[in-house]
């Protein structure tokens, strides 16, 4: 709003009434049937907040009691004491306990998740209400320690991290409870400190303290919430793969005893395994005692890398030039902190896994069992850690995964007399700064693993409002990702929008860029909404909500015929579709619901920042927008709460070129657009797909 457009004092008091609908939409209260006592409280709090901001005279914020009393004539309902209003937060907040006020935590950060689980601690089982905090002390600055996550059992601390302290989700626990908890996990230590994470009752605030192991006393300390990348940038992804084949005589009655004995032998044999850094000349034994490994760091391993098979691609290159190119490749991989992949092998045990292994029935005539154990471990290790540390870590990882396999097989034998083929799945949940490794039976579907997945959500204090531990959520290195004809998440790498004082809200997770002329389909001039719909569906696939394929133009048209929106002649035509049709297809083919936002003109879109920010914060899905004869995809906004200024991050489906990221970004096919991008003489409909609340 420009200075000349700013209302005078007499007009300002009417502003909240005019914009109340926008505020309610941002709070998720756009539907009357959603209004309970808590909702009424939100309405009046928001109303008073808006009046206070815009009125010529300051107004006091109403109490919850006043809100409900004012609401009685409006709503025919039985009022219960309203719960504390929920909040949505954006990334980039910091927190210090020495400050008088603390800004809201970033969504899905450790602080955000900890406060959520503390808030619902009364609903949790006792075993997850307390546990350990893990992370690492920076080797670059030993005065700085990073708390990366929480887990209910010390044995499940992710590789590459260590015990940093303890947590208790019960609000405002007594000192006695905390001291007992700290002493439980510090028995092996004679001195030092443990971080203690708790919450302050009714304040929704994280509280940190130190426990002095020697004096057994608690003392105050401050903390700061930092971006995950501050810790992650000090680490390198390291992978270990191995295949262990065990064949032994047994019977159905003695299997558990025989298997336990073989498992212990396999753990002892690990010290005889050789380690090899893939595509390098680095090779050593797990039991190696080379003193030079104590002073060599992970970064030094890049110097052992040999030529990449694709580096020269069959071209004859002079030896001196080849040497320079290899050195350049090593430096680039070191600067990029590219993952380091190792294999471990021992004699007859192949480094290749047997993916053809099947479940084994334990019948009465069982005499011999052959088991394939596929070790697959992913870790984030500080780049300044020594190679000796890495080798010891690999040894522990192999033993831990052997134990995981053993525990599952023992349970299966007791329950259904079957040995399932098992596989390790490594997960790196978005906005979580550590890996989680889980062993699942290969033959079981995600639906059959619901209880197991819920268990891991609780164990690592990760909210179960979205898929995280489904098999398709597993983390893949770049060289493992399936080759595709499409580009993914093309907005990554763009410059900032340039909006002063704005906050960026973007899609949550990956999507595939669909545009004109792909799939050997000439849809230039009519298929933009189809392509936007395909991008939306790809988002749901990438987040593992669905496994159905992205629909073709024919699939989309047939779906609209099936729901009765179009006549049969529509299939095979070149007719446009709009946001309403997009919502029909999402609902019919994928059971995805959508909200439709109607805007009278392109100019009015500039006033929708609050609603769009709420959408990206709570749902994070791409938005299809149609107006006039054009359709686009909104994948983010930059919005200033203070000025109301806004810029839109647009993914343009009208692009007809090849899959060239440089062209797409530099030519603006994916980029930031001002409000003037929208036609002020056209009305627009926006389809806002709603993320299912499921895991």
Automatic annotation (TrEMBL):
Keyword terms: Hydrolase, Protease, Thiol protease, Ubl conjugation pathway
- List residues of the UFSP2 second domain: 311-480
Establish whether keyword Hydrolase is in the entry: yes
Molecular function via GO: deUFMylase activity
List the residue ranges of the region (Disordered): 78-106
Q: Gene3D superfamilies per the record? A: 3.90.70.130
Annotated coiled-coil segments of the chain: none
Q: Which family does it belong to?
A: Belongs to the peptidase C78 family.
Task: Please describe what this protein does.
Answer: Thiol protease which recognizes and hydrolyzes the peptide bond at the C-terminal Gly of UFM1, a ubiquitin-like modifier protein bound to a number of target proteins. Does not hydrolyze SUMO1 or ISG15 ubiquitin-like proteins.
Name of this chain's protein: Probable Ufm1-specific protease 2
């Amino acid at each position: 709003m420009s200075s000349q457009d700013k209302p005078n004092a007499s007009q300002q008091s009417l502003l909240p009434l005019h914009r109340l609908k926008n505020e309610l939409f941002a709070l998720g209260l756009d539907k009357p049937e959603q209004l309970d006592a808590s909702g009424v409280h939100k309405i009046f709090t928001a109303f008073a907040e808006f009046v206070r901001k815009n009125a010529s005279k300051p107004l006091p914020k109403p109490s919850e009691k006043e809100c409900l009393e004012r609401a009685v004539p409006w709503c025919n309902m039985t009022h219960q004491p309203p719960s504390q209003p929920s909040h949505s937060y954006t990334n980039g907040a910091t927190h210090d306990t020495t400050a008088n006020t603390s800004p809201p935590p970033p969504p899905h950060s450790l602080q955000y998740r900890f406060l959520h689980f503390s808030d619902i601690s009364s609903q949790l089982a006792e075993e997850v209400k307390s546990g350990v905090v893990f992370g690492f002390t920076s080797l670059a600055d030993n005065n700085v320690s990073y708390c990366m996550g929480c887990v209910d059992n010390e044995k499940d601390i992710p590789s590459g991290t260590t015990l940093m302290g303890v947590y208790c989700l019960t609000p405002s626990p007594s000192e006695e409870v905390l001291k007992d908890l700290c002493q439980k996990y510090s028995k092996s230590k004679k001195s030092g400190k443990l971080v203690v994470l708790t919450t302050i009752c009714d304040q929704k605030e994280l509280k940190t303290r130190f426990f002095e192991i020697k004096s057994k006393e608690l003392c105050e300390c401050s903390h700061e919430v930092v971006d995950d990348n501050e810790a992650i940038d000090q680490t390198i992804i390291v992978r270990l793969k191995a295949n262990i084949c065990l064949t032994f005589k047994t019977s159905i009655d003695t299997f558990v005893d025989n298997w336990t004995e073989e498992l212990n032998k396999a753990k002892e044999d690990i010290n005889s395994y050789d380690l090899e850094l893939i595509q390098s000349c680095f090779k050593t034994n797990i039991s190696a005692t080379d003193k030079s490994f104590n002073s060599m760091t992970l970064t030094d391993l890049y110097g052992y890398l040999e030529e990449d098979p694709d580096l020269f691609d069959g071209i004859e290159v002079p030896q001196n030039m080849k040497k320079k190119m290899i050195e350049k490749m090593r430096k680039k991989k070191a600067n990029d902190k590219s993952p380091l992949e190792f294999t471990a092998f021992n004699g007859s045990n192949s480094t290749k896994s047997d993916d053809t292994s099947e479940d084994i029935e334990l019948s009465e005539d069982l005499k011999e069992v052959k088991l394939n154990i596929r070790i697959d471990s992913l870790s984030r290790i500080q780049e300044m850690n020594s190679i000796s540390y890495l080798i010891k870590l690999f040894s522990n990882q192999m033993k831990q995964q052997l134990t995981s396999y053993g525990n599952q097989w023992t349970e299966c034998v007791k329950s259904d007399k079957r040995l399932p083929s098992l596989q390790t799945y490594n997960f790196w949940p978005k906005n979580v700064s550590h890996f989680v490794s889980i062993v699942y039976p290969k033959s079981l579907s995600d639906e059959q693993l619901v209880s197991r997945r819920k268990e891991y959500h609780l164990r690592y204090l990760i909210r179960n409002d979205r898929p995280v531990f489904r098999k398709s959520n597993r983390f893949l290195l770049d060289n493992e990702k399936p080759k595709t004809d499409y580009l993914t998440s093309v907005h990554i790498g763009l410059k900032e929008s340039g909006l002063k004082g704005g906050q960026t809200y973007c899609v949550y997770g990956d999507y595939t860029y669909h545009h004109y002329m792909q799939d050997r389909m000439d849809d230039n001039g009519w298929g933009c909404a189809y392509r936007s719909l395909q991008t939306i569906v790809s988002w749901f696939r990438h987040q593992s909500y669905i496994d159905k394929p992205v629909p073709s133009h024919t699939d989309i048209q047939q779906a609209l015929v099936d729901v009765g929106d179009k006549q049969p002649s529509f299939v095979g035509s070149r007719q446009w579709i709009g946001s309403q049709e997009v919502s029909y297809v999402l609902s019919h083919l994928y059971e995805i619901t959508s909200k439709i936002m109607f805007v009278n003109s392109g100019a009015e879109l500039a006033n929708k920042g609050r609603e769009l920010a709420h959408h990206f914060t709570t749902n994070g899905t791409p938005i299809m927008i149609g107006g006039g004869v054009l359709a686009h995809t909104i994948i983010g906004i930059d919005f200033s709460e203070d000025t109301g200024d806004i810029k839109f991050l647009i993914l343009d489906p009208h692009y007809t070129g090849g899959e060239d990221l440089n062209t797409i970004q530099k030519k603006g096919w994916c980029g930031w657009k001002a409000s003037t991008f929208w036609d002020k003489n056209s009305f627009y409909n926006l389809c806002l797909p709603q993320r299912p609340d499921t895991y």
